[in-house]
Amino acid sequence: MAQAAQQQQAVQKNTLYVGGLAEEVNESILHAAFIPFGDIKDVKTPLDQATQKHRSFGFVTFLEREDAAAAMDNMDGAELYGRVLTVNYALPERIKGGEQGWAAQPIWADADTWFERQQQEEEMQRIQAENKAAMQAAEELHRKKMAQEREGEKEDDDPMARAEAEALQQQQQNTSS
């Protein structure tokens, strides 16, 4: 709830976001479509860097808040060049970066904590590697112990081996007598 209230306060009441623009619409056409509602301070249609065409949305900034409100009420859902427009109050421009992802701070603002996080991550990887090596050593030791026990069992409990040993002893006793 507090975040929604915070976003409401952050909304720029005289700048409108205009979405759903047709490819043919440029800044002067957008200006002409919104000028009936009041004096316009600025019109922007951000360009896609690859195609150098607008990204199907733009921003219209009015001098007066009341004019922006009237334009939004009248133009939201209206058609322009065969496309239905979406018109809302614009959120403030944000800079990409920071620990929170999209934040109103430069990307280098969290540089100090980044190094700290890198060191913690390296330490965790080192501990995990040590734990893995210790687990492998313990498993190997366990395997050897189990193999030795199995060898001992074969010598003690194998009836064939016992019978052979007894027969060998008797032969030795018979030959020596």
Provide tags for this entry.
about 180 residues, alpha+beta, 2 domains, 5 helices, PPIE_RRM, RNA-binding, RNA binding, RBD_domain_sf, RRM domain-containing protein
Characterization of the model:
The structure is a single chain. The chain has 177 residues and is of the alpha+beta class. The protein folds into 2 domains: 10-93, RRM (RNA recognition motif) domain (Alpha-Beta Plaits, 2-Layer Sandwich), CATH 3.30.70; 96-158. Helices cover 53% and strands 18% of the residues. It contains 5 helices and 8 strands; from the N terminus they run αβαββαβββββαα. It has helices at residues 2-10, 27-34, 65-75, 111-157, 159-176; strands spanning 12-19, 40-44, 57-62, 79-80, 83-84, 86-90, 95-96, 102-103. It has a 4-stranded antiparallel β-sheet with strand order 2-3-1-6, covered by helices on one side. A hairpin with a 5-residue loop joins strand 7 (95-96) and strand 8. Mean pLDDT is 81; it is low at 1-9.
Secondary structure topology:
Layout: H1 2-10, E1 12-19, H2 27-34, E2 40-44, E3 57-62, H3 65-75, E4 79-80, E5 83-84, E6 86-90, E7 95-96, E8 102-103, H4 111-157, H5 159-176
Antiparallel strand pairs: 1-3, 1-6, 2-3, 4-5, 7-8
Number of strands: 8
- CATH architectural arrangement of the largest domain: 2-Layer Sandwich
What's the structural domain tally?
2
Which quaternary structure do these chains form?
A: single chain
GO molecular function: RNA binding
Domain RRM: 14-92
Pfam families: RRM_1
Biased composition (Basic and acidic residues): 139-165
